[in-house]
Write the structure tokens for this entry.
Amino acid sequence: MATTTLFLGGARSGKSRLAQAAAEALPGPLVHIATATAGDAEMAERIARHQGDRGPRWRTVETPIALADAIAEAAPAIMLVDCLTLWLSNLMLGRSDIDAATATLLAAIRAAQHPLFLVSNEVGLGIVPDTPLGRAFRDAAGRLNQQVAAAVDRVEFVAAGLSLRLK
């Protein structure tokens, strides 16, 4: 059975770097499943920088919405999904059924037969957002993180580049 790991932390906490290092420590092909879209020049630059940080072992699959399908199709490679909060944002902006998409994602995580590393932002540690959309996103992200944490084998909380095993 494959090991599934969630790396959870704040923005710029080091979670993506640690997840990438964990994946790269394993032998075999690597697939980076990216949920980000380049909506502006700064984001395009950020995506290009992240792609440059990965070596030739990596293949990138871009999937802003169909995450469960991308996980199933990337097998038998070692997979790194970065990140669940951008995926959630894409779902919310597209007015998708978040509960149904989450259920499909959880089934894909549970069915994974190869190492799967997932990255997500912990957005509930800051101030309460002042807009209804911000509060809805924070609440949906909290629910998503709880469900994914329950479905994976291991959870690492990352702060200041250091990880703490929660599960």
